[in-house]
Amino acid sequence: MQIYEIAKLEVDRLAEETGELANLTIEEHGHSVNSHQVQGEQAVKVDSYVGTSVDLHATALRKSILAYLPEERIDTIIDNHGLLHRTEQTVSTREKLGEELEMVREREYAIDDEERLNGLRYVAAPI
């Protein structure tokens, strides 16, 4: 609840400034859960909404969360939930995921290149 209260205004501002979709997502039980979502004027329509729960490896939002979890927690999440293949671009091996997470840590943001939905690309950063 604290992160929601602190981040809500920033997510709202980001959507307004960019005209795009902005989300606040948290990790819960090895999945990500959208806790706040705002559509800017030019936002694409996607199949997510507040409360949506998605695998952590399949998008930029989720990779930005995974990148900063302890390795043991990442292993547990993968062991429990696997690496579901959603599109041709989905990261679906532990080795590739490790490379992606290392890039997220170096850049301090993650990229989704059609990993969950064909035609959708975006960036995400951890807070």
Automatic annotation (TrEMBL):
InterPro entries: GAF-like_dom_sf, HTH_MetabolicPath_Reg, Tscrpt_reg_IclR_C. Residues 1-127 form the IclR-ED domain. This is IclR-ED domain-containing protein. It comes from Natronoglomus mannanivorans.
